[in-house]
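Materials and Methods. Structural model of Pimeloyl-CoA dehydrogenase small subunit. The 378-residue sequence of Pimeloyl-CoA dehydrogenase small subunit from Spongiibacter thalassae was retrieved and submitted for structure prediction as follows.
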Amino acid sequence: MNFNLSEEQSMIKDSVARFIADDYSFEQRTKNVAMEHGFNPATWQTFAELGWLSIPFPSSLGGFGGSAVDTMVIMEEFGKGLVAEPYVATVLLFGGLLAHSGEGEIQQELISGIIDGSLQGGFAYLERQSRFELSDVKTTAAADGELYRLNGEKTVVFNGAAANKLIVSARTAGDQCDENGISLFLIDTQAEGVSVVAYPMMDGQQAANITLNNVTGAQLIGELHQGFGLIQAVVNDTMLALCAEAQGIMQKLTDTTVEYSKTREQFGTAIGNFQALQHRMVDMFVAGEQTRSLLYRAVCSADANSEDALKDLLALKVMVGRAGKLIGGEAIQLHGGMGMTDELDVGHYVKRLMMINTTFGDADYNQQKFVKLSTQLG
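The predicted structure was written out as tokens:
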């Protein structure tokens, strides 16, 4: 496999890295997450002007036509900078569902709004009882003329309070946990009957619980009853992107810890000179590099539409959960008491790793899926 980036990918990587170095310090990030919706609208507009919001979308929809590698490059740098802006919620989830569902007039209009930074979106799929199961859906949709009427409740909707539009999974046929019978619907968050309760997550980013009480005017996205396959495809793409973000975070934590060990003195010498601590930092480095290797494998499998793509992705998600716990825990311990403070960025990076681990299933859940898939494939 060739892991060298193309000239365009190197330019994207350098562009994001320069922005974070020059304009996205930890202090600025702290100010951003304290804003109304947990991010800075001006920073989001800068993302649009730099073209980052267009990268995952096909050229036929006005995008850059980027691959999984292009998205990986962006997300890894976002991880290093602990970027809080809703790239995952608006571009990868909401935009991804639109792009995968076809190239109609609605998709063209909304994706144009995403690319120019004027539209915020979100994907409402989780419910109180569903845990990590995407097919566990009690929210219902009933035909109302040419449109649909929605009733139900969705929880932990990323970017739910800032979103202008939402795509909602709802049951149009079948039993509560059936994969068949799930459909996707586009609604306006200002529509009558939509109630939004926003709250900050442990990583500083915002989510919302959304109640739908006889919400009319919902537009079907994709095919009726066939939404689960679309959901799974977009969630897999997004999970891969989150793993790339986690890789950036783990590299940042390892580098920061090594640098700290060179300046923090104990017993008259830098703590980095103690062999026991050197071994622990080597363990951090090895865990990060193992994750990087599996990330590259999963990205290449995704771009090649390999039959091993899902298996590689599940293995990667398990690795990210396990390696993230090791690296995050060591980073805090080797920084001592200050590693637990809000004033130091280390704890914030660790919290983001913990959130990534639980998004779309934690390491244990995805290991079970991996074993089941491996058994099926023989």
